[in-house]
Design brief:
Helix content of chain B: 55-70%
Oligomer: heterotrimer
Order of helices and strands of chain B: HHHHHHHHHHHHHH
Number of strands of chain C: 0
Shape of chain B: globular
CATH class of chain C: Mainly Alpha
CATH architecture of chain C: Orthogonal Bundle
Order of helices and strands of chain C: HHH
Distance between the termini of chain B: 63 Å
Chains: A mainly alpha (170), B mainly alpha (422), C mainly alpha (104)
Structural class of chain B: mainly alpha
Distance between the termini of chain C: 55 Å
Radius of gyration of chain B: 24 Å
CATH topology of chain C: Helix Hairpins
């Protein structure tokens, strides 16, 4: 993928995404961490656009930024007496060591392997995705709808207060 | 259906893309490659936002809206400042610019500063994908419909940030109400626009306008349910009356905007109008036929047709604002989940069946008019039947105000053990 | 410069390790959930990269996989946050240090 615009877009997006991921880790306020997470989601959506996955880029913004981030913000608002200083446990140094070693191993494998890269650009439009979801991947599609129904019913059941449940039984 | 007579000359104002292209080609010879990108972006922003959006925002959004609402409520609108009140928006802007922007001491200053910026960006970004003419669209991406839905979930985050950072109980109420209402109304909105995408077979806005131009028709005549769902959903997303519980001026001070003053509030207010204009432009593209007008777009400039359709849709917003009262938050949420969502789902089912009949039997394109007739009858049927299921009976609702003595006199409120009325 | 597989995969791997560090070291349960979401996003990026650059006659299956990962992430975030709120109501805290009943 050559081109001046593509290179500028890639470097800007990667700096933005990685700096915001660092911000999620290092910020001392939970709300700031959530806002950095939203920037990470938007950055990843930009990467999807660079990789010709336009439908999934828009779906990423709609679902992650529009719904999941809102869910996280609601959970923070509904837990008012919890600590919101985004601090770490005592296991922070082993965790950092583990993360860095995993990153080193993965980067070594990445740059050492001989990836077979395609020369032609594959057909990756939304129409192809739609037809493949309904023909080849129809079973996971239906199972995903069952999963979403179960998650919906389950999360409503988990947060009902006892007075709501008495109202149900009455 | 009608061939387009627009030519390629730079002086043919029916297609402003000619002028743009000639300027860019001229610059391409002089400047290096990277700089042409910057000049393109600047020209696009200036030529478009400053010439179209900003004057529309001021003269249709601020002045036109207040004047029309005033006339609908049997009073004059603003008519003091300048001849016929035409300098009112400029006076408003000057007043807001010279006001002090206070920030409370215990508010989160960074987020309070970022929230208006995050609110301005989506309002401007919407206009990037809207086609003003056959070749006048900034970014003709194949998923423009989903782009609009993605952009419309960003102001929710901005409003929440504004409400949270003010460190104020009423602002947080306003923020929570906005977020709950916006995510509730996003679902029927997505389903309504999905049915439009199913029938026209494309998700790009330029594709939809060309579809509406080929079979000369307007999508609103074929899918009235989708239009109604879109209109109500987008009114709720934009926090316009009857769904403006979040900034209810008489209830929770100013909701999430309580601690904002000066140009920060001006940015929120202005971008509210710009976002409403963007939603109107989107509706004009998808439902009213965009820049096409049954073949007249060869003589009348297409962008002029489009701008007039945008203003027509914006007039619908002004009309409902002047007429309908404000709904409570629980009424709004139950309306979205219990009424709009099943209606939108049913509409999707009907449209999918129609599209299947159309494509698998290879029928001529004029069959969509028959589908339109069926859809209108079905819309009347669904609304009546579902309202009955929902137990809404117009005969039981009083249409005239009743005096207190007629309805049984004063009844004291039943206080609970805590001593407060719940 | 030519962008290729390694550039995008490096970004995905860095995002994954940052997500792993966050989910292993935060005290707040919601912080841990944010780390998990970061890891899922990194995986999505890697899948789309392979769908774009890899040799296959059905490259679209990478996109289908990502659609399912996004769906599962949404369902899991909803249930996890419902659990967090429920734990907050019974125990008054959501710090994972103080939610450990199994002591060694």
């Amino acid at each position: 993928m050559t081109g001046f615009g593509v290179s500028v877009a890639f470097w800007v997006l990667s700096v933005l995404t990685l700096a915001s991921a660092g911000g999620v880790m290092a910020s001392r306020n939970l709300i700031h961490a959530v806002l950095f997470l939203i920037v990470v989601f938007l950055g990843v959506s930009g990467f999807f656009v660079l990789l010709s996955a336009d439908f999934l880029a828009m779906a990423q913004v709609i679902i992650y930024v529009g719904a999941i981030s809102v869910l996280i913000l609601f959970a923070i608002v509904l837990t008012p007496r919890a600590e919101r200083d985004n601090s770490e446990t005592v296991m922070v140094l082993p965790a950092i060591f583990l993360g860095i070693s995993l990153m080193a191993i993965m980067l070594f494998v990445l740059y050492d392997a001989n990836w077979s890269v395609t020369a032609t650009e594959p057909s990756l439009s939304a129409a192809v995705l739609g037809s493949s979801l309904l023909s080849v991947w129809v079973l996971p599609f239906e199972l995903a709808s069952v999963l979403l129904t179960a998650a919906l019913v389950g999360s409503i059941m988990l947060v009902r207060s006892p007075s709501d449940e008495e109202g149900d039984l009455a | 259906m009608f061939p387009l007579l627009v030519t390629d000359h730079w002086y043919d104002l029916r297609d402003l893309a000619n002028l743009y292209r000639v300027i860019l080609e001229g610059l391409d010879h002089i400047l290096p490659t990277g700089l042409v990108y910057v000049i393109t972006a600047l020209l696009g922003f200036i030529a478009f936002f400053v010439i179209f959006v900003l004057p529309s925002q001021l003269y249709v959004g601020v002045y036109g809206e207040r004047r029309l609402i005033g006339r609908m409520q049997a009073r004059q609108g603003p008519n003091r400042v300048g001849p016929l009140g035409l300098l009112q928006p400029i006076a408003d802007a000057l007043k807001l610019l010279q006001k002090e922007a206070l920030t409370p001491r215990s508010a989160d200053r960074t987020i309070m500063w970022i929230a208006p910026i995050l609110f301005v960006a989506p309002a401007i970004l919407i206009f990037a994908v809207i086609p003003f003419g056959p070749r006048m669209v900034f970014a003709d991406i194949p998923v423009s419909l989903m782009y609009f839905l993605a952009i419309s979930s960003l102001p929710v985050i901005a409003s929440f940030m504004a409400g949270w950072s003010s460190n104020n109980k009423y602002s947080l109420f306003g923020a929570m109400r906005i977020v709950a209402m916006s995510i509730s109304y996003e679902v029927p909105l997505v389903l309504g626009l999905l049915s439009v995408a199913v029938l026209s077979g494309t998700m790009s806005l330029q594709g939809m306008v060309i579809w509406q131009q080929d079979i000369p028709t307007w999508m609103i005549l074929i899918q009235p349910i989708a239009f109604a769902v879109y209109f109500i959903g987008v009114s709720a997303e934009l926090n316009r009356t009857p769904a403006d519980i979040a900034e209810a001026e008489s209830e929770i001070v100013a909701g999430y905007l309580t601690e904002y003053s000066g140009m920060r509030w001006g940015l929120f207010y202005g971008m509210d109008i710009a976002y409403a204009l963007g939603a109107s432009a989107f509706a004009a593209t998808v439902f009213f036929g965009g820049w096409s007008l049954f073949g007249l777009e060869q003589w009348i400039p297409p962008w002029l047709i489009f701008i007039l359709k945008t203003y027509l849709f914006y007039f619908l917003f002004i009309w409902t604002r002047a007429t309908l009262p404000r709904l409570r938050i629980d009424q709004l949420m139950s309306f979205s989940w219990k009424f709009l969502l099943p209606v939108a789902l049913f509409n999707l089912l009907i449209v999918a069946v129609e599209r299947l009949i159309w494509t698998s039997n290879d029928l001529p394109d004029a069959i969509v008019w028959a589908f339109g007739g069926v859809n209108i009858i079905l819309m009347v049927g669904i609304v009546f039947v579902w309202s009955k299921v929902f137990k809404y009976d117009p005969k039981n609702r009083p249409t005239k105000p009743r005096l207190v003595n007629e309805s049984g006199g004063y009844r004291p409120v039943d206080l609970g053990e805590g001593g407060s009325a719940s | 410069m030519t962008l290729s597989l390694e550039h995008f995969l490096t970004v995905a791997m860095l995002l994954f390790s940052v997500g792993l560090i966050i989910s292993l070291s935060k005290r707040n349960a919601i912080g841990i959930l944010m780390g998990v979401e970061l890891m899922l996003n990194a995986v999505n990026l890697a899948l789309i990269t392979f769908a774009r650059f890899g040799e296959s006659e059905m490259s679209i299956s990478g996109h289908a996989f990502v659609a399912f990962v996004i769906t599962v992430a949404a369902a899991e975030a909803a249930v996890a946050l419902a659990l967090v709120i429920s734990v907050y109501r019974t125990r008054g805290t959501i710090e994972v240090d103080q939610l450990s009943l199994l002591r060694f």
